[in-house]
Amino acid sequence: MLDSSSSAGSISATLQIENNDGLEAGQTMQALMQIQHEFEANPTLRAHVDLHVMVQPHGTKRSRLQVGRNVARLFSRSPYVMHTPIRVLWLAPLTMDDTKRDLLDQGQVLVVPTFAFPPHRYSTEQPSFPTTREQVIEWVDADRIGLMDYHWELNGGPTNYDQWEVASEPYMVVDYDYHYGPIYITTKEDHPWCEERFEDQLPACVYATYLNGADFWVLPDTFVIRSGQEPENHLPYAERVIQDGMYKNYRIEQCAFYARQFDQLQVYNTERGTHVKQECAKALKNEKIIQ
Q1: If you write DSSP's letter for every residue of 35-81 in order, what string do you get?
Q2: What are phi and psi of 60, to 5 degrees?
Q3: Residue 224 and residue 246: Cα distance in Å, rounded?
Q4: Over the stretch 30-47, which tens digit does the pLDDT of each residue have?
Q5: Is the dihedral of CA 161, 278, 213, 14 positive or negative?
Q6: What is the pTM of this model?
Q7: Kind of pairing between the strands at 109-112 and 216-218
Q8: Any idea where the domains of the chain sit in the sequence?
Q9: Which of 15, 112, 132, 201 is the most exposed place for a label (fewest CB within 10 A)?
Q10: From residue 207, how far is each of 79, 214, 280 by CA, in Å?
Q11: What is the gyration radius of the CA atoms in the chain, in angstroms?
Q12: What is the rounded average pLDDT for all residues in the chain?
């Protein structure tokens, strides 16, 4: 789990609870009072965590993570936001130097590489994992962990392990794909919000940010360790199929939106419009709208 005691910065978190009989119902009020009690009893939580409680209608099956991501970002104390999953084993120290701040202030995105265990290699009984960059490289060389990008095999995704292994400065992601959904850092303002028509589709957040003109820069001096057992999302298979179909339509829709917006702003033929041109051409060709 994400540990507030390991972070010197602030954590903005969203907690969604089910409302059975109205906001003033006994069960709901009891849950809210319990949350308040546990929060106030922990000095570390009070110092570092802003907890945003969302009461959901009765019968809500799951947390709407896209909404939760937006709420956490909206109420963040910091001008920079790291979009982090709750379940992580280790988050290496992250130092915000001038190079990172300059990239963020220019509208770029920083990617924090995620390393995970191959299937059946993670033990919940005696979990051990690397905590330094040097140890990470040793473990990857021994096939004990790998750089994880969902939709790709370990070490085979756009984050590019071969480049991370030798990098000393942030490097750009050059093989972007609309399935890409890394842990990433942006400014709080001036980036698109996560599309809330989806329950849990992190790549949609990344896709809109990419079309809006941001480049993605991978950080070589930090990383996250996860077990590798976490699914990309928690949707049942049938709902995942529906969401994947919606995402394909969303891909075309966003291409049209940004192409038209950039044309009106007269930036379509500038460097900012490069991603729109590239991704729209791929999307239209993939859907056989153009040859």
Answers
A1: HHHHHHT-HHHHHHEEEEEEEEPTT--S--HHHHHHHHHHT-SSSEE
A2: -65, 125
A3: 30
A4: 888 888 888 888 888 888
A5: negative
A6: 0.88
A7: parallel
A8: 1-60, 61-286
A9: 132
A10: 21, 10, 12
A11: 20
A12: 88
pLDDT at 3: 46
User: Which tokens hold the place of 281?
Assistant: 């051409």
**Distance between CA atoms of residues 84 and 57, nearest Å:** 26
User: Which residues is 115 bridged to in the sheet?
Assistant: 147, 225
Query: Which contiguous run of DSSP H or E holds residue 30?
Result: helix 26-40
Residue 160 phi/psi, 5-degree rounding, is 70, 85
Reported as type and span, the H/E element at residue 226 is strand 224-226
**Chain segment 103-131, per-residue pLDDT in tens:** 999 999 999 999 999 987 776 665 789 99
Token pair listed for 184: 């990433």
Helix (H, G, I), strand (E, B) or coil at 91: strand
Beta bridge partners of 82: 185
CB neighbour list of residue 173: distance below 8 Å, 6 or more residues apart: 111, 158, 159, 160, 180, 215, 216, 217, 218
What percentage of the chain carries pLDDT values higher than 70?
Answer: 89
Q: Which two tokens stand for residue 152?
A: 């790709």
What is the 8-class DSSP label of residue 117?
A: P
- Are 147 and 157 a contacting pair, CB within 8 Å? yes
Contact 97, 168 (CB under 8 A): no
The closest alpha carbon to 151, from 286, 244, 278, belongs to 244
pLDDT at 225 over 90: yes
pLDDT in tens, 253-269: 999 999 999 999 999 99
Query: Residue 291: is its pLDDT beyond 60?
Result: no
Q: Which residues pair with 54 in a beta bridge?
A: 16
